[in-house]
């Protein structure tokens, strides 16, 4: 009688262990599969609803977050306007930005060079990305280029060219001025895509304050936090706002002034009628930083190559890539 009882006990314990392990491995498989197959471009999903509430416009804005796959044509188009110019860091910066955009669905990239002619290496880079893009030219007008003293209006002719393109070809969606040297979180593009008029959000690494952002209290816009107020109505950085295409189309005169330091303010003021209380607040009521004003260290142009000495070597080809 004693033997079978022990046997029953052994069978029971072993069965329990096997059963427990099966559950453990199943749980691991589920979580493992989730992380493996999770769509990289998927936004946060709130349980029990098809919408995630990103705080916004002094009224809450519902952002549909069901279809973020890279090939989803139903997403509103997002136009990214990027000024760029020839300098040692140009290809490195554009490579980094291109790779960010390659992870973002339904975008059209307007790469606008401050140059008289297209840079072949930029054309080549754009082609290799497989992105939908236009490569345009908009040289800085001579009067500003020749300026000896003070800052120049960097990227302004480029951005105005981008606005002209939007007016001509875009019908809906949203546009965003993305300088070539910033760092962008993919979450930024998920959120700005649903901008109804003008949305704003924090930009990290700006001035000594370390951030430029709308000030929000209890979900309400209270003013701006920026290290350089300068009497501006909209003291924000170029990377700190996005605008709906229709909102622009309804304002045929809106453009960016050639006024160093006042480009953002001038452009946002030209979107009249538009007042700060109407700003749609993104990035979870401006509590997150989805874009950074990185600024690469400036590099001197590479030193001349001794072509006689290095004739017929790879260095000759590399030198053509470098500035
Ligand atoms: C800051 C802001 O973030 C810019 O958006 C603003 O245009 C600039 O100040 C300004 O007010 O002048 P910052 O980092 O100082 O930016 O400027 P850059 O990154 O040097 O230039 C802004 C954009 O214009 C970049 O995409 C750059 O490639 C382009 N750029 C710059 C030109 O196309 N031509 C130039 O001669 C210089
Ligand atoms: Mn910059």
TrEMBL record:
It catalyses: 3-O-(beta-D-galactosyl-(1->3)-beta-D-galactosyl-(1->4)-beta-D-xylosyl)-L-seryl-[protein] + UDP-alpha-D-glucuronate = 3-O-(beta-D-GlcA-(1->3)-beta-D-Gal-(1->3)-beta-D-Gal-(1->4)-beta-D-Xyl)-L-seryl-[protein] + UDP + H(+). Mn(2+) binds at residue 181. GO terms for molecular function: galactosylgalactosylxylosylprotein 3-beta-glucuronosyltransferase activity; metal ion binding. Its cofactor is Mn(2+). InterPro entries: Glyco_trans_43, Nucleotide-diphossugar_trans. Pfam families: Glyco_transf_43 (PF03360). Its EC number is 2.4.1.135. The active site is at 264 (proton donor/acceptor). GO terms for cellular component: Golgi membrane. Pathway: Protein modification; protein glycosylation. It is found in: Golgi apparatus membrane. Signal peptide: none annotated. It is a single-pass type II membrane protein. Glycans are attached at residue 285. Keywords: Glycoprotein, Golgi apparatus, Manganese, Membrane, Metal-binding, Signal-anchor, Transferase, Transmembrane, Transmembrane helix. It comes from the Eukaryota. It is an enzyme of class 2 (transferase). Belongs to the glycosyltransferase 43 family. This is Galactosylgalactosylxylosylprotein 3-beta-glucuronosyltransferase. It comes from Cryptolaemus montrouzieri.
